[in-house]
Amino acid sequence: MLAGFDCPEYATFMNVSFNSEEVHTTHPNGLCLFEADGGSALQRHSSDKYVTATKNTVFTLRSVSTVGNYDYTVSNKHRH
Questions:
Q1: How many domains does the chain have?
Q2: Is residue 80 over pLDDT 80?
Q3: To 5 degrees, how large is the angle CA 8–CA 11–CA 13?
Q4: I want to staple 17 with a disulfide (CB 3.0 to 4.6 A). Which of 26, 44, 54, 65 is the partner?
Q5: CB-side exposure of 53: number of CA atoms within 13 Å?
Q6: Pseudo-torsion of CA 59, 70, 9, 77, nearest 10°?
Q7: Do residues 20 and 12 lie in contact, with contact meaning Cβ atoms separated by under 8 Å?
Q8: Is 7 domain-assigned?
Q9: Does residue 4 fall inside a structural domain?
Q10: Does 5 reside within a domain?
């Protein structure tokens, strides 16, 4: 995972570890976690006197998997 490309510069990066054929392997910065603006209001309410809105913040866990010579980016998003 590359900061500023695969994930924002401010993301939290975590190592990913796995075992294969009795060999333990760790991929540094194998996934990232970050929050980002969802691009529109999640909810809006207005009356004669006021307008309220709830910001659409998206929490994302992102990883990249390599299969053969292709890389696949997977993003799991949770809106809150």
A1: 1
A2: no
A3: 120
A4: 26
A5: 8
A6: 0
A7: no
A8: no
A9: no
A10: no
| pLDDT tens-place string over residues 35-70 | 998 888 888 899 999 999 888 889 999 999 889 999
68: left (phi over 0), alpha (psi -120 to 50) or beta: left
Within a domain: 32: yes
**What percent of the chain has a predicted confidence (pLDDT) above 70?**
99
Q: How far is CA 67 from CA 34, 37, 47, 56, 73, in A?
A: 25, 31, 53, 33, 11
DSSP codes joined into one string, 12-67: EEEEEEEEETTEEEEEEEEEEEEEEEEEEEEEEEE-SS-EEEEEEEEEEEEEEEEE
User: String of b and e for 40-49 (b: at least 16 CB within 10 Å)?
Assistant: eeeeeeeeee
